[in-house]
Amino acid sequence: MKEIPFLCWIRSQSVFDPFAVPVGPGDDMALVRPVTDDLLVTTDQLLDGVHIVLADHGPQAAGRKAMARGLSDVAAMAAEPVAAVATLALPPGFARADAEAVYLGLRAAAEPFDCPLVGGDVGSWGGPLAITVTVFARPGLREPILRSGAKVGDAVCVTGALGGAWRTTRHLTFTPRVAEALALADAFDVHAMIDLSDGLSVDLAHLAEASGLAAELLADALPIHADAKGLEDPLAAALGDGEDYELLFTLSPDQADRLLAIQPLVVPVTRIGTIVEAAAGLTLIGADGRRQPLEPTGWEHQT
Q1: How far apart are CA 189 and CA 277, in angstroms?
Q2: Alpha helix locations (H) across the chain?
Q3: Residue 89 and residue 91: Cα distance in Å, rounded?
Q4: Using CA atoms, how far apart are residues 239 and 159, in angstroms rounded to an integer?
Q5: CATH number of 147-294
Q6: How many Å apart are CA 170 and CA 196, to the nearest integer?
Q7: How far is the CA of 159 from the CAs of 58, 75, 86, in angstroms?
Q8: How far, in Å, CA of 163 to CA of 156, rounded?
């Protein structure tokens, strides 16, 4: 595959709002016209053999997941996507049609959120396919929601259902909860939030640690996905599988009661625990009321 003809093809496929993106791909930099002084930035990689199996899932699914992962980070802070750039490191002999499919997957994930792909880079190397996506966003109707805002007594809530995403294509086809996060931030006083990429227990531990607190989880309250119910230990899957890309957030108990009563989102919201006063740590409370320390489990890159 030749780089220049591929980049020319990308430019031919690119359609932008000329006010929001006066200059798209083709120059040394894109020009994006922000409507706010604050700009949020996230970047993430997708690696063949780690986040996807290219031979099984195909290049378009790889592109879609790469973009959706970045958009899930935007959702975690209740922000609005503005634009994205992507770089592709292609393995030797990667076909032009497959490179086009990666681009189409990136764009398919971004378009529903009005997030134009305004630039990037393409190269080749001796390793597997690697995609890096950087997404730029602006705050929604309120300040960005951080991990560090949880308060003692907060209800811990989660959207959707958890566990077993790798057993199906759900880890490839998930919808980033951007709209849901904005709706929550608009109607409720959400104190802290994170997206569930690495696993419920480890991501909750990150949120609690950032807030200088701890958390208790109710085992029988966890919404276990149908994908996990056929596993030997569905509870462990819900706690540690990761790749669910749902929202985990905290808010006051009275706000949580109102949210749970009206269920305003397109996905259900479940209260699964409470933020408590402690230096660190998670506690799992069983259906019988027994309490035990919960060691966070989930994905962690090894270097």
Answers
A1: 20
A2: 3-13, 54-57, 59-76, 96-110, 170-173, 178-187, 200-210, 234-240, 253-262
A3: 7
A4: 14
A5: 3.90.650.10
A6: 13
A7: 28, 12, 28
A8: 18
Q: Are strands 40-47 and 79-90 parallel, antiparallel or unpaired?
A: unpaired
> pTM for the whole thing?
0.90
Say which residue the tokens 């496929």 belong to.
13
Give CATH 3.90.650.10 domain extents, the chain.
147-294
Our CA angle for 121, 110, 26, nearest 5°, is: 35
DSSP-based three-state secondary structure for 195: strand
CA-CA distance, 262 to 187, in Å (whole number)?
Answer: 11
Going by the DSSP 8-state scheme, the letter that residue 31 receives in this structure is B
Q: What is the pLDDT of residues 158-198, one digit of tens each?
A: 999 999 999 899 999 999 999 999 999 999 999 999 999 99
**What is d(CA 99, CA 288) in angstroms, rounded to the nearest whole number?**
54
Task: Label residue 204 exposed, middle or buried (CB < 10 Å: 0-12, 13-18, 19+).
Answer: buried
- List of the chain residues with pLDDT < 70: 1-4, 7, 10, 26-28, 35, 299-303
Using CA atoms, how far apart are residues 85 and 136, in angstroms rounded to an integer? 9
Domain 3-139 = CATH 3.30.1330.10: yes
